[in-house]
Amino acid sequence: MSGRLDEILAAAVPAVCSAAVAVIAVDGAVAASGVAGELERYADAGERLLGERPAARRDSLFDLASISKLFTTAVVLSLAEEGRLSLDAPVAAWLPGYSPAITLKHLLTHTAGLQPTRRVDLEIPGEGPSVLAARMRAMLTTPTTSPVGADYLYSDVGMVTAGRVAELAGQAPLDVLVRERVTARLGLADTCYRPAAALAGRVAATEFKPERPGSAAVRGEVHDETAYGLGGVAGHAGLFSTADDVLRFGEALRTGGGPVLRPETVAEMVRDQGGSGAPFRHGLGVRIGDPAIVGPLRDAFGHSGFTGTSLVVDPATRLTVVLLTNAVHPLRGRPGIRELRHAVAAEALRLATT
Fold it and tell me: 3-class DSSP state for residue 285?
């Protein structure tokens, strides 16, 4: 639908990522979409090519990584709307023994003073439900490393905790809450944790992880080690989705939250909560003006994902911009994803203003 967008994506494949899908909506209507590359390109982390390389499609599924945090946030906020929890109450109200100083708002704004991550999969080896439960208990006892309520410190641990509080308040597992409160209400049929085997052919591969069973690239399993160690469902990562599903979620936020959240809730979600220490402003679960993803859309909100994904929503220009890639295939650390995100955002702005 957009020659320019196709050209932008094609220029990034395969140096930045082996597959890329982008969709841009202006005032709710898709103005451009683009697809480039192959869902699984490499036979090993040394970049030896596969003999058969499935082409990416617009309906391909990608590991969203930290965009999952926005879905967790939506669940938490929907529970708050119903009075099942309070963002200002101590987390200890749901998790006895937890630091009484930390609230859900601290977790959603990354000001709880919790460390960025914790490899509970390495601390507690093994398999089975008892191991998963022990890992979650360990995660929920992670001590703070800086003062509560002080500077921003990005923390997957905090979002895992927020997801667990949601489970307790909502009386259901997180994947069920996300489905019932977000994806089902929006008709996001392709957004899920732990994709079923029937979807395997549509999923983009990520990194080669020799510690996991098999020798192939990760495909259909969450890339994030901590989320994988918690069973594939966690508050900070684990969701897979298509560009069109993520676009619909972003559009719901842009237009006031219906049928997931109330307009006043979304307004609070995307309001600068006044934290310090980050190169962007921070709402509840969302980043505002994150220079890594917004490009020229200076006041847009959204989130990025470590695998090479991003959602950017700019109410001022009526734009919702989705970029899904597997920039960690066959290995992490490939340069250029920031520049690709900026180029897609710049093309979105051009479409909105011409």
Answer: coil
Spatial distance between the Cα atoms of 176 and 237, rounded to a whole number of angstroms: 15
Q: Considering the chain, what percentage of its residues have pLDDT values greater than 70?
A: 99
Dist. CA 210–CA 191, nearest whole Å: 27
Strand ranges of the sheet holding 192-193, from the earlier edge strand across to the other edge: 62-63, 239-241, 192-193
Could you give the CA distance from residue 249 to residue 236 in angstroms, rounded to a whole number?
17
CA distance 172 to 325: 31
Residue 208's pLDDT is what?
96
The contacts found for 280-286 with CB under 8 angstroms, 24 or more apart, are 282/109, 282/110, 282/152, 283/109, 284/73, 284/77, 284/87, 284/105, 284/108, 284/109, 285/69, 285/70, 285/72, 285/73, 285/74, 285/76, 285/108, 286/70, 286/73
* Two structure tokens written together for 99: 């630091």
d(CA 345, CA 150) in angstroms, rounded, equals 32
**Report field, pTM of the whole predicted structure over 0.85:** yes
Compute the distance between CA of residue 296 and CA of residue 68 in angstroms, rounded to an integer.
24
Residue 85 near residue 165 (C-beta atoms within 8 A):
yes
- Model confidence at 108, pLDDT cuts 50, 70, 90, reads very high
DSSP string, 6-18: HHHHHHHTTTT-S
Block residue for tokens 């160690």:
229
Query: pLDDT (tens digit, 9 = 90+) per residue, 255-276?
Result: 999 999 999 999 999 999 998 9
d(CA 292, CA 297): 11
Spatial contact of 121 and 225, defined as CB atoms under 8 Å apart:
yes
CA distance 172 to 93: 17
pLDDT tier for residue 182 given thresholds of 50, 70 and 90:
very high
In the predicted model, what is the mean pLDDT of residues 211-240? 94
Q: Which residues pair with 240 in a beta bridge?
A: 63, 192
Tokens representing 154 are: 């990005």
Residue 1 scores a pLDDT above 80: no
Q: Answer yes or no: is pLDDT of 204 > 90.
A: yes
